[in-house]
Design goal:
single chain; 4 helices; globular; alpha/beta; 3-stranded parallel β-sheet
């Protein structure tokens, strides 16, 4: 099965520096401009991610692509919590096929090598 992501609103979720659930919830609330009543717990996160009425306005009718960056430190610091976060992302995407959550595997542009094809390991 493939999904056409063309036209979806892309929202970056930067987890750089996040090492616990509270930090993840705060970043999600900020990135998605979640309402004040967002409960900052796993159930509230899956509900919010799969509820189009709380998505950013520009996602209405287009779908939402949430791109998670800088997640590795959190995954290493709290592997069980990170596993739960991934389950939450997956459940929300299953509830609403208009949502896609992608984990970026690369670093930020600041960490790219100076020359194409060359890295610090060369």
């Amino acid at each position: 099965m493939t999904h056409d992501l063309t036209g979806r609103l892309v929202v970056p979720l930067d987890l750089d520096g996040v090492t616990d659930k509270a930090g993840l919830m705060d970043r999600c609330a900020r990135a998605l401009a979640l309402p004040d009543w967002f409960g900052r717990n796993w159930d509230a996160l899956v509900d919010s991610l799969s509820d189009r009425t709380v998505w950013p306005e520009d996602a209405d009718g287009r779908g939402l692509l949430l791109v998670v960056h800088g997640w590795r430190a959190y995954a290493e610091a709290r592997p069980a919590e990170w596993a739960t976060a991934q389950e939450v992302f997956a459940e929300a995407a299953e509830r609403d096929p208009g949502l896609t959550v992608a984990l970026a595997v690369g670093g930020s542009a600041e960490h790219l090598p100076d020359q194409a094809g060359r890295s610090d390991r060369d």
